[in-house]
What we know:
The chain is mainly α. It has a single domain, classed as MFS general substrate transporter like domains (Growth Hormone, Chain: A), CATH 1.20.1250.20. It has helices spanning 3-30, 35-63, 66-81, 90-104, 107-119, 126-151, 156-171, 189-193, 196-211, 213-225, 230-280, 285-293, 295-313, 319-349, 351-372.
Amino acid sequence: MPYWRLSGFYFFYFALLGALVPYWGLLLRERGFDAASIGELMAILMATKVVAPNVWGWLGDRLGHRMRIVRAASLISVAVFAAMYWAHGFWAIALVMTLYSFFWNASLPQFEVITFTYLKDRVARYARIRVWGSVGFIVTVILLGALVERHGAEIVLPVVLTIFIGIWLSSLLVRDPDPEPHPQVQQSLLNVLRRPAIIGFFVAVFLMQASHGPYYAFYSIYMKEHGYSETLIGQFWALGVLAEVGLFVVMHRLLERFGGRRVLIASLAFAALRWLVIGYFADSLLMLGVAQLLHAATFGTFHAASIHLVHHYFRGRLQGRGQALYSSLSFGAGGAVGSLASGYVWEGLGAQWTFVVAAATAAAGAAVAWRFIDRAHDF
């Protein structure tokens, strides 16, 4: 198993998130966009995940050779993002964001299938590879926070372009694994999707990512409005992902002991608590620190448990489309709805109520997972 080459791709892929999620909103605010416009533009990054992973997932399942898709998509992302240097105004920026995110979002679901193909029956060890994505996020969010404080938010552009190049170069180092034989007779995708447990799973992950809308779109702006510096904001983002790193080290033990269903439900419950803490205790460094430590649950255990469940629900030739559906319905549709709605709620009701709505959304997700995900699948 090419551990370091697989880990390298995750490092650069999530380093890009470490630049875009905390600092893209600050760049848009510096360029004069209001909260509603920022929410709409940030929603684009999520909305393309609704379509792109399914298109590329279908191609990957039909053609095999998933790394060719990952390499091509990564290279096109580099070329398209470079156009951001000439994009000014809402619609020009929206167009470039739509194009580069369409190709960027093609990469991860296909790479997840490749990783699991290399892992074979050692699926609980996935977290030890994925942890390097968290390391990439931490490195980027800390360094870029200091750069933004010193040089302004426009420094985000060259940093993001450099990371895009790193994603493409790292994709060149991973070869397509030998395909595993699939049974000749398999359930159709539609039959799998009709199962109540799977419907409940997808509703729960949608609600989880929808609840993250205010956090991804406005957390840095929210912190800035409360008087925190960009450097400290970057350190808070890093603290959350550092907690996630520690969680990933023991994640395989949690899944083996408690199973994917119970870990997923706990993640959603902790998310509801986290958004309430951020909404009501923004002036307390201690409480904000506690909220960031809960990122270990709201992303770390959530994503690992979700990937674990998807791998078991979607077998054989359905793996690519299963990963794509998870990505598109959670990070895509859920993230887009959450970002878009949070912009309007933020404008209409203010920051505190926006996080209250986010907490209620996560709590609803926990209730859905508890009711509909079959305990028989709590492996």
